[in-house]
Amino acid sequence: MKKILALIVVAVAMQAHAEEESDSDLPEWMVDKITPVHSRVSRWVSSTSRGLDGFFGTDDSLRVENQSYLRLSQEFEWRETEDFDTDTSLRFRLDLPTTKERLRLVIDSDPEETQGTLEQQGSQSLRQDQTDRRNSVVGLDRLSSRDKTQNWATKFGAGVKLRFPLDPYVRMTTERLWDVGDGPWQLESYNRLSWFDSDGYSARSRWDFGRPLDEVRHFRFITNFQWQEDVDTLEFSETIELNRRLSRRSAIRYAGVMVGNSSSNPRINNYYLLTQYRRSLHKDILFMDVIPELHFPRDSNFDPRWAFTLRLEMLFTGDIQEPRD
């Protein structure tokens, strides 16, 4: 299995070094199948979001940038000593930018509050109930208009988890971006406080410190903290990451991660290395991620354990650029 993973990484990296004239890796017959479906769904996303925005907002809804999207992904996962697994995820966001108070309707099958501990998130593994679609949420976010490079950008949201009985939630998110000194270093902060009726309170914070090394490479230090009432312990992770753009359609990430918990008596639960290769398979609407990982978990006496994830993702949006979360 180790040789297979190595061959896959080498093959995709060698392919990416050649800058293709085409915007697609797909055969013509597959393009003919995908294009009509993608066009219909993207038009529906755009017309629905702009129609609702026009109803609640102004006539400018037909002209302003709208970052509504639907993202469908399919993951195939393998972990040493465990069974092969698959997972389907759907994220749908309707943006209403011209309303008096900017609103965003969110339908999410994989909200961050249901993704388990930091160790489970990092290893691509999920809690037992994560594959249960009852974790999907639908809600409304109110966005501040503040520029996060000048002030804290704050977002308030509320909604329900789609289960019976309905599970209400509220949450607040803050973001900030600073330039550090006169150099190219930047520090970005993302923080969220949430409450779900079934799970109680949770809090998470991410601090991202990085800089570009040149036109194609970017270096980052990422620190995460997380606390969940049902787990009732403070978790933390430290990541060193190098991102490199291989071509206009592909990029690769190398990362080393340390995951632990407790503030009074820190304990490291897992070390792991990963490589993530991402490629646009077709005109920036169909993407592929190849992610081999090597873990050293405490529960196996830090003996090495291999993991591998293949992810396919399709993006439906009415606007040209890819929307950001």
Description:
The structure is a single chain. By secondary structure, this protein is of the alpha+beta class. 15% of the residues lie in helices and 49% in strands. It has a single domain (2-316), classed as Beta Barrel (Porin), CATH 2.40.160.40. The protein has a 14-stranded antiparallel beta barrel with strand order 1-2-3-4-5-6-7-8-9-10-11-12-13-14. Strand 6 (167-179) and strand 7 (186-196) form a beta hairpin. The two termini are 35 Å apart.
List the helices and strands and how they pair.
Blueprint (H helix, E strand, L loop, with lengths): L1 H15 L11 H29 L12 E11 L5 E12 L6 E6 L9 H5 L14 E7 L9 E9 L5 E13 L6 E11 L3 E13 L4 E12 L5 E14 L2 E12 L5 E16 L3 E12 L7 E12 L9
Antiparallel strand pairs: 1-2, 1-14, 2-3, 3-4, 4-5, 5-6, 6-7, 7-8, 8-9, 9-10, 10-11, 11-12, 12-13, 13-14
